[in-house]
Amino acid sequence: MTEEDFYNTLSSPNPKFSVCIADFGEAILFTEEGSDDSFTTRNKGTEFIKSPEMLGIAYASQKAKDNYDRRKRNGAGSSSDIWSIGCLFYELLTNTFLFQESDWVKFFIRVTTAPGELISKEKRAAVGDRKFLIEYLQDVLVRDPKYRPSLDIILARLQRVKSEYATVN
Length: 169
Known about the structure:
This protein is mainly alpha-helical. The protein is built from 7 helices and no strands. Helices cover 46% and strands 0% of the residues.
């Protein structure tokens, strides 16, 4: 399939392909949300799709810092994957990272610090300023992991996005 065929197929209500996101060697199976084994302190993965809490792992674990607290649990759970799915969704649509910055500190602050805008005007324009795509990204890309939707919810919303995308193209 050529790149042109791929993008033409996207406009079809029933594309002739499916997307499978795979993890090449870094996957961890969380058995039960909220249990001790549903939390990781391993800071691995592509920097530009890491969740705010995953980005904070390395910083929070530095014992020399004044704000270090060994009792505080720093790490990421399955909601971190929800954030990454939003970033990957944007990347699949545009072939660019949503949060890539040449200045790492600027990137870190943009992703981890509220109330800064997450999806810039330029990034909105890259998805054609389509309201349903931007709303989907905003629903998934919530800085606080406690307020991110579950996988079931984002999959249901993705079906609606797919239907709307088919009617627009």
